[in-house]
Structure formats: structure tokens, C-alpha cells
Amino acid sequence: MDASLAQLVATAVAQGALGTAGSGAMEGLLGMIRHRFRRDGAAMGALDSAGSGTGPLVEALSRHIENDPDFAEDLRDWIKEYGSGPGSGAGQSTQLRHSNQVIGTVHGSVIQGQNVRGRFSLRGLRGDR
Questions:
Q1: Does residue 87 sit within a domain?
Q2: Could you give the CA distance from residue 24 to residue 43 in angstroms, rounded to a whole number?
Q3: Domain for residue 89, yes or no?
Q4: Are 43 and 13 in contact (CB under 8 A)?
Q5: Is-above-0.70 flag for pTM?
Q6: Domain tally, the chain
Q7: What are the b/e assignments for 27-61, b being 16+ CB within 10 Å?
Q8: pLDDT beneath 50: ranges in the chain
Q9: Through-space distance between the first and last CA atoms of the chain, rounded to whole angstroms
């Protein structure tokens, strides 16, 4: 069973339900899941209530992923296309695309980083080179 894939997809659905994901991409994901869940009333209910908690959706996705390798591959492909992490296979960490905003007056630099490995320096960033 690919619980990490189920968790990633459930999180994407929940974030989409809260309005944080792109509508076209989210509609594609929801359409794919609804098609797969169409004969499973409990799974459809879990999908419809994903905004209030992902536990039941993770369980439903896990069942369907385990029983249908093609569905699992379609979900992985969606994560690859709309994810920003290093791949989307089982056990790998993939996050949905997101953006950050800095609101207010900034006196200096704003630095954003993800997955920084190794040494790095912040010298020269204060404008006093």
C-alpha cells in the first residue's frame, strides 16, 4: 500500500477545498478521483468532506491505490506535474506548489529557501558590499 501517495493526494484535495490550489489542476484531480470512487459511496463521502479532515479520504485513497495500480500511477503523474518537490514516488517528499507574500515595509533582503543542503553564506546581502 502506498500510504504516502494517499496522504499527498488527500492533502492536495483538502487544500484545494480551502482554495489554495489552482482550479484547473484541482478540477482534474477531483474528476479523476470521483471517476474512480463513483461506485464507492463511502469513499465519495470521504472526498466530499475532505475540507474538514483527511483521515477518511486517506483510507479510501489507500484502498483504491492498492487495488488499481493504474489509478496510483495517474495520481503520481498528477503529483509530478503539479508538485514542487524532488519527484513523487513512494517515500519521497513532494509538496504542492505554493507562494509566499511579504506584506509591509521591508528594510533589507527577503530570503526564501527550501531543501538547502550544504554550506551557504548570507554575506553581502546587507547592501554594504
A1: no
A2: 22
A3: no
A4: no
A5: no
A6: 1
A7: eebbebbeebbeeeeebbebbeebeeebebbbbbb
A8: 1, 20-21, 84-96, 129
A9: 54
The angle subtended at Cα 53 by Cα 72 and Cα 42, nearest 5°, is 60
In which domain, by residue range, is 18 found?
3-82
CA atoms within 13 A on the CB side of 34: 9
Is 90 inside any structural domain?
Answer: no
pLDDT digits (tens, 9 = 90+) for 77-90: 888 887 643 333 33
Is 92 exposed, middle or buried, given 0-12, 13-18 or 19+ CB atoms closer than 10 A? middle
* One-letter identity of residue 46: A
CA–CA distance, 12 with 32 (Å, rounded to integer):
13
